[in-house]
């Protein structure tokens, strides 16, 4: 999975700046239009004000300072992981510049993307905001004061595929037979796999398959340690461990997508490597526990629908306006909210570090997790 997706020359994500949208293999919330980024800008603006007010109070205890001696507002890092070609960051900055110029002034943008071709598109995509782009690289910054955010990152990280047998846990390896890639079951490559399942409270019955995403835990560790003060916001699709490792998903969740179609066959992820997306569902419980063990506070885990509604998604719809632009906007809102679509399959996870446990606007409504 690591080679098929991330090989620098032949990997699926390495060979194109963007793989989503109508002409790609799958849709994300970013492909619906700029609404998703505009709503994130609202949330990030609130986060910035919370950090600014806390830091300003700590630096200037005088409750009535002289306006002429006011301490400048601190810079605020926006760090997007798996930034693709920078479209989401562009939508966020466009909205902040138009509707929250005070927040826009404070932004320092860092785009993190493993694909060199995608990174090459950042300068052009962010051209109107070139002064805001501090870095475009393959690695997270070492120190972040602000927000680290990612849209559909963890589900695309390489996983270990395992199966429970009568003789205990076995891991699936890749072998070659008659010119084709095939699975071979063998002893687990690391004791970390059984430890992961035990920590998650998973009890696999013989015959049940599952995916174990150690790479997601490694990424969470890097992100939480880099975040010195601020927030971590992740949007992905997944389940709590009790559901993910239950008979409901006895065949595992590993899947591939090509031209908006889930590929069939018993092991489609072994076919035509480098030409199709490979993904698995995220274990929300273990992600949350990992963040908390690293000093981050969980502020909320909920369906994307309720997060976006709390941020004012419905306010963006004018039912009386019948212009083409307005109709497209209503269709975009519908796509973000429709049950069974992006709104319910995608979950929003919000964590905080060294800012207390504030009540964020995006978490003030229904906190349903389906």
What does this structure look like?
This protein is an alpha/beta fold and 370 residues long. It has a single domain (11-57, 73-157, 212-262, 276-363), classed as Rossmann fold (3-Layer(aba) Sandwich). It contains 13 helices and 15 strands. Strands 1, 2, 3, 4, 9, 13, 14 and 15 form an eight-stranded mixed β-sheet that branches. It has a four-stranded antiparallel β-sheet with strand order 7-6-5-8, with helices on one face. Strands 11-10-12 form a three-stranded antiparallel β-sheet, with no helix packed on it. A hairpin with a 2-residue loop joins strand 6 and strand 7. Helix 2 (35-59) packs across helix 3 (87-99) and helix 8 (214-226) runs parallel beside helix 10. The longest helix is centred in the first third of the chain and has 25 residues, at 35-59. The two termini are 28 Å apart.
Second-tier CATH architecture: 3-Layer(aba) Sandwich
**Secondary-structure element series:** HHEHHEHHEEEEEHEHEHEEEEHEHHHE
What is the tally of helical segments? 13
In CATH, what is the class?
Alpha Beta
Number of strands: 15
Average residue pLDDT: 87
Shape: globular
Q: Biggest β-sheet: count, sense, barrel?
A: 8 strands, mixed
Helix content: 25-40%
Structural class determined from secondary elements:
alpha/beta
Report the sheet-strand fraction. Answer: 15-25%
Give the CA-CA distance, first to last residue: 28 Å
């Amino acid at each position: 999975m690591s080679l098929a997706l991330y090989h620098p020359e032949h990997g699926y994500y390495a060979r194109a700046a963007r793989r989503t949208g109508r002409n790609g293999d799958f849709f994300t919330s970013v492909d619906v239009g700029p609404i998703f980024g505009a709503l994130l800008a609202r949330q990030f603006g609130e986060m910035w004000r919370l950090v600014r007010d806390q830091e300003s109070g700590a630096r200037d205890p005088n409750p009535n300072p002289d306006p002429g001696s006011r301490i400048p507002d601190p810079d605020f890092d926006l760090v997007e992981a798996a930034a693709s070609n920078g479209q989401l960051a562009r939508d966020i900055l466009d909205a902040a510049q138009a509707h929250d110029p005070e927040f826009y002034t404070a932004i320092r943008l860092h785009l993190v993307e493993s694909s060199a071709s995608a990174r090459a598109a950042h300068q052009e995509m962010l051209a109107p905001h070139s002064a805001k782009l501090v870095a475009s690289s393959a690695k997270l910054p070492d120190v972040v004061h602000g927000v680290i955010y990612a849209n559909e990152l963890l589900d695309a990280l390489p996983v270990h595929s395992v199966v429970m047998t009568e003789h205990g846990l076995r891991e699936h390896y890749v072998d070659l037979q008659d010119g084709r890639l095939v699975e071979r079951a063998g002893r687990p490559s690391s004791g970390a796999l059984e430890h992961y399942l035990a920590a998650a409270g998973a009890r696999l019955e013989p015959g049940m398959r599952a995916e174990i995403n150690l790479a997601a835990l490694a990424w969470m560790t890097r992100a939480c340690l880099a975040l010195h003060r601020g927030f971590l916001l992740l949007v992905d699709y997944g389940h709590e461990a009790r559901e993910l490792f239950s008979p409901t998903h006895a065949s595992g969740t590993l899947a591939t997508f090509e031209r908006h179609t889930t590929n069939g066959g018993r092991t489609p992820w072994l076919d035509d490597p480098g030409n199709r997306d490979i993904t698995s569902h995220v274990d929300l419980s273990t992600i949350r526990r990992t963040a908390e063990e690293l000093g981050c506070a969980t502020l909320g885990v909920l369906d994307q629908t309720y997060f976006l509604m709390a941020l004012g998604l419905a306010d963006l719809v004018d039912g009386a306006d019948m212009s083409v632009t307005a109709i497209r906007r209503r269709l975009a809102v519908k796509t973000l909210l429709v049950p069974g679509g992006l709104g319910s399959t995608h979950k929003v996870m919000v964590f905080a570090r060294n800012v207390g446990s504030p009540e964020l606007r995006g978490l003030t409504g229904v906190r349903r997790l389906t």
